[in-house]
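Hi support team,

I've been running sequence recovery on a batch of backbones for a student project. Most finish fine, but this one hangs at about 90% for roughly twenty minutes before it completes. I'm not sure whether the input is malformed or the queue is just slow. I've pasted the structure tokens below so you can try to reproduce it. Let me know if you need the job ID as well.

Thanks,
M.K.
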């Protein structure tokens, strides 16, 4: 094993962990002040709930011995036989280091979904949702792509989670919007973000943590990590500028929220491609993400879908573009290199992930709704979830 690789993976694990509080700040700033603690709580508690699930069974289901290309076995239940020996998929680092790094991805993925149903879901129902979703959606898809499952056998490329994380979460978010319905008063009065500096703080933490998300996925302190680091920063920067310009043209003023959203869109889109493409390709991917995700949000608004914090438009659509762009720009194997097969495989992986996430999320939400209900009462929603669910307030009166 290599001490440099071990150090980099531990640092990257910490960076990815920091992304979940960063997401909490980002989402917290975007909601109204009466719901800020509620959505911060949803991100924070995911670190605890999914952190335990990953140790008990999530890691084994995602990376255990392959069962028919669909799911991993349970031989590593409760981390049985997962210790300081070399990791099967990363022999220069301990198995425990690989496990905890992958666990940070498992934590943030269901937390991403919360932005879609902000202000509406019961906290108890949310706890059951993340347990079931992490087990029956995230772990199988992670196995398909990274754990030796059927998409891996096809040759699907997903360097750091474009399909596993962003498409799965984005499509699940869209399904929660359909199931839970619109917020009370949606379209009738303004629901503008309550704290823009908090949004920018969250964006900065996400951008910072994304270096561990993408460059850490090289699973070592090596040349691929360097490439992924630079392509990540390049796509984020490139995603910011077109969004700013479009917003400026569309609304008449440059928007700080728009710039922050464009940066996140660029980061999402480069995630599946980061270690597979050139820096020049990252420019194109970031630029394309800004245009495509902006258009997706306008489409959502036209259809009056209450995806409160645009999870589908940024993560779902951004992840789809990134996965397809990987099939176009991947060095040596993409469409630009003359290989149509890779692009076809990427399209298959996108369709499979979208379909499975939508269907499985629908089943999970319907089951929870039938047992305990999903949505807070109209009175609780009007008061705000901070008071009605948690008896706490973010700001002193």
């Amino acid at each position: 094993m290599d001490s440099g690789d071990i150090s980099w993976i531990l640092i990257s694990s910490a960076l990815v962990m920091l992304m979940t509080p960063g997401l909490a700040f980002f989402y917290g700033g975007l909601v109204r002040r009466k719901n800020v603690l509620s959505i911060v709580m949803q991100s924070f508690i995911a670190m605890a709930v999914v952190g335990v699930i990953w140790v008990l069974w999530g890691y084994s289901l995602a990376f255990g011995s392959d069962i028919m290309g669909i799911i991993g076995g349970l031989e590593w239940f409760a981390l049985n036989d997962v210790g300081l020996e070399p990791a099967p998929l990363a022999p220069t680092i301990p198995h425990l280091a690989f496990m905890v790094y992958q666990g940070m991805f498992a934590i943030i993925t269901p937390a991403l979904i919360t932005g879609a149903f902000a202000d509406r879901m019961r906290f108890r129902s949310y706890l059951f949702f993340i347990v079931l979703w992490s087990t029956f959606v995230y772990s199988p898809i992670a196995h398909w792509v990274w754990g030796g499952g059927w998409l891996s056998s096809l040759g699907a490329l997903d360097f750091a989670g474009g399909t596993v994380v962003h498409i799965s979460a984005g499509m699940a978010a869209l399904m929660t919007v359909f199931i839970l319905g619109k917020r009370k008063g949606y379209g009738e009065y303004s629901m503008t973000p309550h704290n823009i500096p908090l949004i920018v703080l969250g964006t900065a933490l996400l951008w910072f943590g994304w270096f561990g998300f993408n460059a850490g996925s090289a699973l070592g302190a090596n040349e691929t990590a360097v490439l992924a680091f630079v392509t990540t920063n390049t796509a984020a920067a490139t995603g910011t500028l077109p969004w700013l310009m479009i917003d400026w043209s569309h609304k008449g003023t440059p928007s700080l929220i728009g710039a922050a959203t464009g940066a996140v869109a660029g980061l999402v889109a480069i995630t599946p491609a980061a270690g597979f493409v050139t820096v020049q390709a990252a420019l194109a991917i970031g630029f394309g993400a800004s245009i495509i995700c902006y258009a997706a949000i306008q489409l959502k608004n036209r259809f009056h879908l209450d995806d409160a914090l645009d999870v589908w438009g940024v993560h779902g659509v951004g992840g789809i573009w990134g996965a397809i762009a990987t099939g176009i720009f991947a060095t040596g194997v993409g469409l630009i290199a003359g290989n149509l097969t890779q692009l076809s495989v990427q399209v298959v992986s996108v369709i499979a992930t979208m379909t499975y996430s939508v269907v499985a999320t629908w089943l999970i939400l319907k089951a929870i709704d039938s047992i305990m209900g999903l949505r807070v009462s109209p009175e609780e929603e009007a008061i705000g979830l901070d008071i009605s669910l948690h008896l706490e307030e973010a700001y002193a009166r």
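--
Follow-up from support: It reproduced on our side and the slowdown came from queue contention, not your input. The longest strand covers residues 90-94. No action needed from you.
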